[in-house]
Amino acid sequence: MTASESSGSVVRRILLGSQLRRLREARGITREAAGYSIRASESKISRMELGRVSFKARDIEDLLTLYGVSDDGERAALLGLAREANVAGWWHSYGDVLPGWFQTYVGLEGAASHIACYEVQFVHGLLQTESYAQAVVTSGQPTASESEVERRVALRLERQKLLVAEQPPEFHVVLDEAALHRPYGGSRVMRGQLEHLIDVSEQPNVTLQVMPFAFGGHAGESGAFTRLRFPESDLPDVVYLEQLTSALYLDKREEVAHYERVLGRLAADSLSPENSRELLERLLQLA
Hey, is 178 helix, strand or coil? Predict the structure, then answer.
């Protein structure tokens, strides 16, 4: 099983959940009533419709019957989608160091066709060198054992493989200049990180821009965020906001549109990719 196939299972789970929600709402059936029909709670139906849990074939069959879906072809298609959605992602092997709320993001990230983000505190995880990632993890998890740090770094490096995959996503990152001056791991680590950023910025699928100190206040006032876009037309764009012990996934059209406008302003006000690379080269000389 390839990484794209396991990541795709997350997308299929969300697609199936959204279709089940539409079918339920079209029949005017409450989540409570739907839960009762499959011997489950209202919250279980909510988690299914959000794509947060795996699906049992019997539950899907019972819900489709409740929702009046009698066409054999339609039922077979949705049951097939449920089977594909239950494929375990490669990241499940990192469950010992991967919070449940972040597993969804890793799957969505791997399935996205376009990733756009703004980062403030440190270099984005998809662009971190191994040494820099180790310094970031150690700083954020000061009580973690050496083996746990190694596992977290290995997970981060595994995620990065998507940028050099056969069909990689378009990756547009705006880094606040502050992230380039914060010395994680010391000068040698920072030199290696700056060299890596210069190299990766030349990949055809990567657009790297720096928001310079000189610009002053800017559109990214609320902090770091990521917008994910998918090749499936049925799946809306998702904005990911990471917090200390949880995360928010926004997919309402008006909310995503607001972040899209912020991304546009950040891109317009930041240094161009060429000038950003020149800044990285100057900082490397000073490091």
Answer: helix
